[in-house]
Amino acid sequence: MSLAGCAGWTDWKVRKIPNWLTVPALLLGLILSAVLRVPGLKSSLEGIGLGLGILLPFVLLRALGAGDWKLMGALGAFLGVKRLILVFLGTILIAGLMSVTEVVRQRKVRQTYKNLLMIFLAFSTFHVNNARAITLDNPGLLKIPFGVAAALSTGLFFVIISTLRFFHKLG
User: Fold this and answer.
1) How many other CB atoms are found less than 10 A from the CB of residue 38?
2) How far apart are CA 147 and CA 54, in angstroms?
3) Helix 146-170 / helix 66-105 crossing angle, nearest 10 deg
4) What's the confidence (pLDDT) of residue 133?
5) Which of 36, 65, 76, 171 has the fewest other C-beta atoms within 10 Å?
6) Measured distance CA(44)–CA(141) in Å, rounded
7) pLDDT in tens, 38-58
8) How far apart are CA 110 and CA 119, in angstroms?
9) How far apart are CA 50 and CA 90, in angstroms?
10) What percent of the chain stands above pLDDT 70?
């Protein structure tokens, strides 16, 4: 959880998640899962594969930063595939809420609608090059710190798990 917290804080402050944080964390997650067998080496490797594989297209299209991508891989190493799925779904939900809030706050609803329509048409007609203006390289577009969403989701995951375990012991 401290990995996600540190990455979220760094992403909030400088809008980058550095390699010195994510790469060693991924390796440490693998080592710990092999030694402690939690979540297990196989699940850890699957978590890395899922975290990196599902976000790779977004990184290649420059719709997501590579630090965010590596963070999800590192979280996959620690959490394993089943837990990562829950954290990933929570991250998408939180990032979506952050995005909607920012779009409304900056009064860019109409432009966002046009951008989403352009992306939909580009992908549905396999003309991905038509949506090239909608990347991280465009300074006019809103950018949401995905690492913050991942940190919030990871923290929420552990709070929920701890609460469920507590009430399970009572009952």
Assistant:
1) 11
2) 16
3) 90
4) 63
5) 171
6) 35
7) 899 999 999 999 999 999 988
8) 14
9) 15
10) 94
What is the distance between the alpha carbons of residues 33 and 80, in angstroms, rounded to a whole number?
9
Tokens of 81: 């595939």
The string of pLDDT tens digits covering residues 60-87 is 888 899 999 999 999 999 999 999 999 9
SS3 state at 102? helix
Which tokens in the block code for residue 138?
């465009």
Tokens 């594969």, residue located: 49
Instruction: Name the H helices within the chain.
Output: 2-14, 19-36, 41-60, 66-105, 109-124, 146-170
Note the pTM of the prediction, 2 decimals.
0.87
Domain ranges of the chain: 2-106+142-170
At 47, list the tokens. Answer: 């978590």
Compute the average pLDDT of residues 126-151. 78
- How many angstroms separate the CA atoms of 70 and 51, rounded? 8
